[in-house]
Amino acid sequence: MAMAFRNMLRTAARRMQVRGYADAPRGDEMALTFAAGNKVFYDKQVVKQIDVPSFSGSFGILPKHVPTLAVLRPGVVTVVENDGKQTKIFVSSGTITVNDDSSVQVLAEEAHPLESLDRSAAQEALSKAQSELNSAANEKAKAEAQIAVEVAEEVVKAASA
């Protein structure tokens, strides 16, 4: 009897360890919250897909995506809304969280719609950041300037798209 009970517990434990897709609360819907210090872009709005740049690689998120936590790198987040419209938003950094209920949170340090980016201003910012990197007096200044260069390069790329 004790042996049968142990086998039953092991079987139950194995089932609980199996990793699967998230359960969406309303079928194949995915609620997006996307906010930055300067603006809230989406507030629990249902969308079809989200493509994000992360330090572990760019990836797309669909309903029932496996729960994930990632750090955003500078780049463009693309949101595909239910009507097929694509919204592209540049992010400087932040985090992306995909929850097991298919809700997604994008929290960006700074974010701006692509159409609001000014290519010439981005190019100026890149030149300034490169100059600061070249004249950095210590490791801290060099690291800060390198981050500014990386962000400015991505802004120039996004503004040119």
How would you describe this protein?
The chain has 161 residues and is α+β, with helices and mostly antiparallel strands. It has two domains: 86 residues, ATP Synthase, domain 1, CATH 2.60.15; 44 residues. Helix content is 34%, strand content 34%. It contains three helices and nine strands, in the order H-E-E-E-E-E-E-E-E-E-H-H. Strands 1, 2, 3, 4, 5, 6, 7, 8 and 9 form a nine-stranded mixed sheet that branches. Strand 2 and strand 3 form a beta hairpin. Helix 2 packs antiparallel against helix 3.
Can you describe this structure in just a few lines?
This protein is of the alpha+beta class and 161 residues long. The protein has helices spanning 2-17, 119-134, 139-160; strands at 30-36, 40-52, 59-61, 68-72, 75-81, 86-91, 94-98, 104-108, 111-113. It has two domains: 30-115, ATP Synthase, domain 1; 117-160.
Report the C-alpha radius of gyration, rounded: 21 Å
Name the shape in a single word: elongated
Which fold does the CATH topology of the largest domain refer to? ATP Synthase, domain 1
Straight-line distance between termini: 68 Å
Which structural class matches the secondary elements? alpha+beta
Number of helices: 3
Q: Report the CATH C-level class of the largest domain.
A: Mainly Beta
Helix content: 25-40%
Q: Tally of extended strands? A: 9
Q: What summary fits the major beta sheet?
A: 9 strands, mixed
**What is the string of helix and strand elements?**
HEEEEEEEEEHH
By CATH's scheme, which homologous superfamily of the largest domain applies?
Answer: F0F1 ATP synthase delta/epsilon subunit, N-terminal
Coiled coil: 119-153
Organism: Papilio polytes
Family: Belongs to the ATPase epsilon chain family.
InterPro entries: ATP_F1_dsu/esu_C_sf, ATP_synth_F1_dsu/esu, ATP_synth_F1_dsu/esu_N, ATPD_C_metazoa, ATPsynth_dsu/esu_N
